[in-house]
Each structure stands twice: as structure tokens, then as C-alpha cells.
Specification:
Phenylalanyl-tRNA Synthetase, Chain B, domain 1
């Protein structure tokens, strides 16, 4: 019952207490002192603890009986045969208790309360309440007398009451009487133009603290909003505008943004089939990692994307299309910071996604960023991708990224049981070639002419090569070019494919004649023949 009473009073009054068995108090004297270096005490949890001279203890004439504000000693606690007890109720400095609890690796109900600061004037009421409960529960007889430290009383803090300043500070028009009503509800008292703060509110120190309490009870919703004053208008930087455009484009394409840790396990390099001599395996090691799974900084974002896709797949999500602007960290020199590289990575799986879906998303993204003169070519040496379903991307002669289907072995390593596609772009290169400013042209005055070309070529020839050939042949007359059919079947020889392309020609200066159109188409056909494509007959 005694232990229950001290716990109950702690919850009721917010004042931690401890009950000592008087038999264990040597000399029947209790005092507060600093522990001696190397002094030990076995606490109520059964752990023997070594103390330092910076830690306070409650002690008798010869030994510590409790770690002040944290936990009592094992031998000083209440036993079944205890006949005489002493209640201890104190107010220890919060910083001292917090430091002691941290150094001892402990956190108790008592220490948590002391850390936040307690009202020293609450010690006596708490003891009186405990004694009252002892009598009410018939747990014992209460003896007269309280031994009290002279430093336990605390004078109430005073703050000048300034309603005009408070209204200016809050941009409100609250009456003086209403402010007083609010503060009196908080048990504040008034002595002329001074506010007498209750001792259980040590956080009320300055007039700004009083203004905060008034605003809280008055209602933040009643205080009109006001723009922060400034001499300059805020605008996006070029980089911020670019990043915003990338996000808008990816979200418009139906992809969901993810954010992953920049740390992962070295085992991820094996899972994506990275060669042992690949320079990207040289990673920055974390000195104090949370675990092996977060022990190095990533040099590629692909494993992070595959882990998220795997989680979605194994949680029975039928499809997913995700993207991230991810950081990659390339070591430079041992005493230098790493090269932080930003990468846009997109990954997807599901019935609605295949290589051409990923390629279409890529084309739309680049188009929205104003990048039109880019190249795509087959790539067979990317370790993490299917060798026959992968392509590298370049722009202006610089490597832009890679797109393709993830290698089946990699998918197996990540526990993904469906075909998965991904593209990765270097955002630095992407930004260099992006043209985010839009120019407008007047509507054309002269009609366009459309010609459809049915071509036969080797199945290995990329359609992009055919489009480039037509662009070279038609020159400035070309307005638009669109592939509307690709066919492989019985009517086409083995290893060949039929590609149907719609070509739109227009002149800005005059209506095109049949001769001009035919000449342009013939030049395009000659360019197509150079890359191995002929008109289908």
C-alpha cells in the first residue's frame, strides 16, 4: 500500500516521492550530498551502479540510499516486515537529474518529471496528501512533524503587466479585463501593475511568455494573419525552377514520388550484379551506422528504388510507378567531401507498364523540359539490365542516362516476381540542356502536306534512326513526324519489320507545290536507304 500511495501521489500531484524503511537509515539521519568517486549503489531494479562525484545521492551517515531524483536503493525500500517508514519529497534541479539519468543509462517516471522542472512549494502538500492516504486506507499511523530543508520555499516570480505592449506584439485589440480573466484562469495573481506567477509555472519568465498564454486562450484563429514585411520579392532560383518542373512532369505522368535513405548495405552491389572491380563499389563508410543495412553511402540509387518496388510487390500492390530525385555520393579523396550527384530514377511494374511505356514517359519528360535533340542506342553491357532490352541515352555528346528492363537475376535478388522497368537520368546534364522558357510563334498562314511512308528495315534498326534520316532529308520543311505502326509477321521476312511513319511538311513562306513535296520526300528516302530502310512494295 505504501508504494502504491507514493505512485498515486506522483500521478495526482506531479511530485515524485520515495518511502524509506527507517530501519535501513543508519543514524536516523537523511541528507543530500554528492556521491564519492567510485561509490556504488544497488538500485530497486537490481542493478549495481557506480557513481561519480557529479551525481547527487540521498544518503544516511555511511551510505547512499537513493540516486537523487532517479531511483531508490534496493535495501532501503519497503519490505513485508517494515514497521516504520519515512516519506521523502524533494525538488532537485532538472539539469542535474537529467545528466545523472543519462550517465547511468536510466529513465524513470521520477526523472522524467524532475527533468522538466517541478514546483518546490509542492513538496509539503504532496507529503501531507500521502499521510492522508495512509490514514484513509488504514495503512498505518501518522506521526507529527516534518523535517524540511530551509531552501524548499520559493518566492513567486513577478512580471510587469503591459496590455498595450501585448496588443502591439500580437496585433490584437484585447481588452485589459479580458487579459486579466485569462491570466486568472491560469492561477496568476495581480498586485497593481504586476503579475504574480504561480510557482508551478517556471516557464513564465518574460512578458512575451505572458503574451503567448493570452494568445493561446484568446484563440490563434481570432488573430488576423499578416504577411511578413520584405524589401525584395521572393522568386525561384534557376535550379529550384528546374527541380519543380521535373516534379510536375513526373507527377503528370502518373508517377508517385518516394524518398529513400542515402545509406544502404554493401550487399546491394552484389544484388544488382555490379562487377567486383566497378569503381562505384568504392563507397563512403559510416563511422557510427545504425546497422549493416545503413553502413555505407550509396553510389547508385537503383538498389533503393528496387527495395521500394519489392516492398510494394510483396504487399500485393498489383502495379507501381515511382520516382525519386536521389542523391548519390562518389568518393574523391580521403580527406575531402564526396561528390554529391543528383539522379532522377523512375521504376515501374504492372500490366500497364513495359519498355515502351517507360520510353514514352521518358520522351514526354524530355519534351516538357525542352530537350529534343537527344539520342538513344542499344546497350548490352549494363550489369543490372536485361542485355536485349536496355538502351543508353545521350544528349549533346554527353551521357544522360540509361533505360531498360531490370535483369531477371536482379529481380530475383530483390524478391520481385514480375517484369520491372526503370530509367535513370543525370539531373546535372538534364539541367544543362533543359530549355524551360517557352517561345510562341504565330499560327501558320499556309497549309501543311502529309505523306505516309511504309518502310521495311532490319528489326534491329531503332525507329529513332529512321526519324533522324527523314529529318535530314526534309530539312526545314519538316513540321512533324510520327510513327503510327510497327509490324512483324508472316508477310514480313524473318529478321525484318515494317514501320509506318507520317510526315508533315509545311513552308512558312508559301504554299508547297507537289514538286517541292516530292523532292523533299525523295531526299528523305535516300537518307533512309543509307541506314538500311526501303519503301515497302
Amino acid at each position: 500500500n505504501i508504494v502504491d500511495i507514493t505512485n498515486y501521489v506522483m500521478l495526482e500531484y506531479g511530485q515524485p516521492m520515495h518511502a524509506f524503511d527507517l530501519r535501513s537509515v543508519e543514524g536516523r539521519k537523511i541528507r543530500i550530498r554528492r556521491a564519492k568517486p567510485g561509490e556504488t549503489i544497488t538500485t530497486l531494479d537490481g542493478v549495481k551502479r557506480t557513481l561519480t562525484d557529479k551525481q547527487l545521492v540521498i544518503a544516511d551517515n555511511s551510505k547512499p540510499m537513493a540516486i537523487a531524483g532517479v531511483m531508490g536503493g534496493e535495501f532501503s525500500g519497503i519490505a513485508k516486515d517494515t514497521t516504520t517508514i519515512v516519506f521523502e519529497s524533494a525538488c532537485f534541479k532538472g539539469t542535474s537529474v537529467r545528466t545523472t539519468a543519462r550517465d547511468q543509462g536510466m529513465r524513470t517516471e521520477a526523472s522524467g518529471r524532475y527533468e522538466k522542472g517541478l514546483d518546490p512549494n509542492n513538496c509539503i502538500p504532496a507529503i501531507n496528501r500521502a499521510c492522508e492516504l495512509v490514514e484513509l486506507l488504514d495503512a498505518g499511523d501518522v506521526m507529527d512533524g516534518i523535517l524540511m530543508d530551509d531552501h524548499s520555499n520559493k518566492e513567486k516570480h513577478r512580471i510587469r503587466f503591459e496590455p498595450e505592449w501585448t496588443n502591439r506584439f500580437l496585433h490584437t485589440d484585447i481588452s485589459k479585463e479580458e487579459m486579466k480573466k485569462i491570466l486568472m484562469k491560469l492561477e496568476c495573481e495581480f498586485d497593481g501593475d504586476e503579475i504574480i506567477v504561480p510557482t508551478f509555472r517556471p516557464d513564465l519568465v518574460h512578458k512575451a511568455d505572458i503574451a503567448e498564454e493570452i494568445a493561446r486562450f484568446y484563440g490563434y484563429n481570432k488573430i488576423p494573419s499578416k504577411k511578413l514585411p520584405g524589401g525584395t520579392e521572393g522568386v525561384f532560383t534557376e535550379k529550384q525552377h528546374f527541380i519543380r518542373s521535373v516534379h510536375q512532369a513526373m507527377l503528370a505522368l502518373g508517377a508517385d514520388e518516394i524518398m529513400t535513405y542515402s545509406f544502404f548495405s554493401p550487399k546491394n552491389y552484389d544484388k544488382i550484379r555490379m562487377p567486383a572491380d566497378d569503381p562505384l563499389r568504392n563507397s563512403i563508410t559510416i563511422r557510427n551506422p545504425l546497422g549493416e543495412d545503413t553502413s555505407i553511402m550509396r553510389t547508385t540509387a537503383l538498389p533503393s528504388m528496387l527495395e521500394v518496388l519489392s516492398r510494394n510487390y510483396n504487399n500485393r500492390n498489383s502495379e507501381a510507378c515511382l520516382y525519386e530525385l536521389a542523391g548519390e555520393y562518389i568518393p574523391t579523396q580521403p580527406d575531402k567531401l564526396p561528390l554529391e550527384k543528383s539522379t532522377l530514377i523512375c521504376g515501374m511494374y504492372g500490366e500497364d507498364y513495359d519498355f515502351f511505356t517507360a520510353k514514352g514517359m521518358l520522351e514526354t519528360l524530355l519534351s516538357r523540359l525542352g530537350i529534343t535533340d537527344w539520342d538513344i542506342s542499344a546497350c548490352r553491357d549494363a550489369c543490372s539490365y536485361h542485355p536485349g532490352r536496355c538502351a543508353k541515352l545521350t544528349v549533346g555528346g554527353e551521357a544522360l542516362g540509361i533505360i531498360g528492363e531490370i535483369h531477371p537475376k536482379v529481380l530475383e535478388n530483390f524478391g520481385i516476381g514480375v517484369r520491372t522497368y526503370s530509367f535513370t537520368l543525370d539531373t546535372a546534364v538534364l539541367k544543362d540542356y533543359a530549355a524551360l522558357s517557352h517561345t510562341f510563334k504565330p499560327l501558320p498562314k499556309f497549309p501543311a502536306v502529309t505523306r505516309d511512308l511504309a518502310l521495311i528495315c532490319d528489326a534491329e534498326i531503332p525507329v529513332l534512326e529512321l526519324k533522324k534520316a527523314i529529318q535530314r532529308g526534309t530539312g526545314k520543311l519538316l513540321e512533324n513526324i510520327k510513327v503510327f505502326d510497327v509490324y512483324r509477321g508472316e508477310q514480313i521476312a524473318h529478321g525484318k519489320k515494317s514501320v509506318a511513319i507520317s510526315v508533315v511538311l509545311r513552308s512558312a513562306n508559301a504554299t508547297l507545290t507537289d514538286e517541292q513535296v516530292n523532292n523533299a520526300i525523295q531526299k528523305a528516302i535516300k537518307e533512309l536507304e543509307k541506314v538500311g530502310a526501303n519503301l515497302r512494295t
